[in-house]
Amino acid sequence: MILKQYYLGCLAHASYLIADESTHHAAIVDPQRDVDHYIEDARKQELVIRHVFLTHFHADFIAGHLELRDRTGAEIYLGAQAHAEYPFVPMKDGDALELGNNVLLKVLETPGHTPESISIVVYDLQKNADQAEAVLTGDTLFVGDVGRPDLRAALGWSANQLGGMLYDSLHQKLLALPSETRILPAHGAGSLCGKALGSESSSTIGIQRRVNYALQPMDKESFISLVLADQPDAPAYFTYDAILNTKDRITLEKALQRSLKPLGVDEVLRLKDANAQLLDVRDPAYFAAAHLVGSINIGLGGKYATWAGTILDRERPIVIIAEPGQEQEAETRLGRIGFDHVAGYLEGGMNALDARPDLVRRTDRIDATRLAEELASANPPAVLDVRGPRERDEKRIEGSLHVPLNHLDEHLEEIPRGRRLVVHCATGYRSSIAASMLRCRGFADVADLAGGISAWETVKLSPADAGR
């Protein structure tokens, strides 16, 4: 048996290839939308991808089931409660698929994170026909956590109703498996599909029964309350993606062919005037040094797709500004969350603006020592913290304002316009996004704290210290 995990760090997403070495038949589970690496691995190992499973309709990314269907002829398998525009094989409790003489996949319906969720129990018949080798748990059970049941509230399901289903799925289905069974989830640490995911990419039923906070002995009502408490805000694009995963949409390859095209400066300006969004994907330091007026900075080096899906408008075209050669990566990663409305990219990147200095702006990027000095001055700036609430509870700059980045547009009226504003986050990634947004919203004197509160803590300066 071949069982390989693929981990996409930027989305904290795990997908899987399972194959029978005797028949060379393979299945892909929860694929990402760009599917070349599955196809290439199958080619190298002389495998035929005949099946593609979705454990549920993912909300945080667009799955690659249609891409694999169109490129390999693979059949799509979903839970029996699923409804989709494209043909699929519905799988209910106990349904099985033989990949060959040695590999058997058996489905468990495990609703809770979503109503159509399934888990896939993998048997290596050559090794042990009576005991499961692993279980692919999708977003039902993670390492250290369980799937959140509140994401389908916008689609007519109550969080309490799904939470009760999740409790039953865990206790009646997954925890009934042998303790030695490996758990292979669809996400790891950093995913917003749970609140306390561990950094390990796999575990076992026995270990999770002992250490997972949500699997400790408790009644159903206590479980629902515990799991729903303190969940992070879900980005607005989650509902969009969950719905799009049910549609017979354009494939990524066709989307890139349509929109990955170079644009001159004049065309970019014309699109901007027509309400396009200018997305600069460079590192915050390069953006601060020089950027096209009116652009938003969401760097490829951070949680690019997640923040792009949170900040950008799905109804307005996007023009990408990147270091030459990084345009396709920028658009592919947008495509992973279904943002196919890219109009093109600025040909030559910022070099295209060498003859147009009137279109170039910079952001004041200050270090912690200088911020401390400014705070000790007669006319101190306002400091805006754009981190999440739990981060702020741990440490903060005294006297700072607090508006989480994902709620910035909702609270612009709370931010002072008549004084200098210094924005900070944990390390400088989110604050660059926020500073660029504020400049686009008409805030004139905005600075970005390089290194964020981590740099502030390292310097260990207070305004009083700076005045000595």
Q: What does this protein look like?
A:
The protein has helices spanning 36-44, 65-72, 159-174, 205-211, 220-228, 237-244, 252-259, 265-273, 284-289, 304-311, 327-335, 368-375, 389-394, 429-440, 452-459, 463-466, and strands at 2-8, 13-19, 25-29, 48-53, 75-79, 89-91, 96-98, 103-109, 118-124, 134-138, 182-185, 203-204, 262-263, 277-280, 291-292, 295-297, 318-321, 342-346, 360-361, 364-366, 382-385, 401-402, 421-424, 446-449. With 468 residues, it is of the alpha/beta class. The protein folds into 3 domains: 2-241, 4-Layer Sandwich (Metallo-beta-lactamase, Chain A); 250-361, Oxidized Rhodanese, domain 1 (3-Layer(aba) Sandwich), CATH 3.40.250; 364-466, Rhodanese-like domain (Oxidized Rhodanese, domain 1), CATH 3.40.250. The strands form 5 sheets. It has a 6-stranded mixed beta sheet with strand order 1-2-3-4-5-6, with helices on one face. A 6-stranded mixed beta sheet has the order 7-8-9-10-11-12. α3 crosses α5 (220-228). The longest helix has 16 residues, at 159-174. It is globular. The termini are far apart.
